[in-house]
């Protein structure tokens, strides 16, 4: 079964850590793709960043979430 996992963080390092932690839980051959996006917003006080990643992977039926 094909699954996706979405990550959304305010800091680049947090996203990196969380994605790497998740990747350790799946087999390398089950990884299909990783999509990355950076969004910014300026609210007239500060610049706000949103770092996102979408991991597409194969999930075995016997694996838990």
Q: What is the topological layout?
A:
Blueprint lengths: L1 E8 L2 H12 L7 E12 L4 E12 L7
Antiparallel strand pairs: 1-3, 2-3
What descriptors fit this protein?
alpha+beta; elongated; 65 residues; three-stranded antiparallel sheet; 3 strands; single chain
- Count of discrete domains: 1
End-to-end C-alpha gap: 13 Å
Radius of gyration: 14 Å
The portion of residues assigned to helices is: 10-25%
- Our count of helices gives 1
pLDDT averaged over residues: 93
Strand/helix succession? EHEE
Strand order of the largest sheet: 1-3-2
The total count of strands amounts to 3
Largest sheet: 3 strands, antiparallel
Pairing-aware structural class of the strands and helices?
alpha+beta
Strand content: over 45%
Shape designation: elongated
Give the uncertain stretches in residue-range form.
none
Walk me through the structure:
This protein has 65 residues and is α+β, with helices and mostly antiparallel strands. It has one domain. 18% of the residues lie in helices and 49% in strands. The chain is built from 1 helix and 3 strands. It has one helix spanning 12-23, and strands at residues 2-9, 31-42, 47-58. The chain has a 3-stranded antiparallel β-sheet, with helices on one face. The radius of gyration is 14 Å and the shape is elongated.
């Amino acid at each position: 079964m094909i699954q996706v996992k979405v990550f959304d963080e305010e800091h680049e390092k947090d996203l990196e850590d969380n994605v790497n932690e998740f990747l350790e839980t799946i087999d390398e051959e089950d990884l299909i793709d990783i999509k990355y996006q950076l969004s910014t917003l300026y609210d007239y006080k500060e610049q706000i960043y949103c770092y996102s990643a979408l991991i597409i992977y194969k999930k075995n039926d016997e694996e838990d979430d």
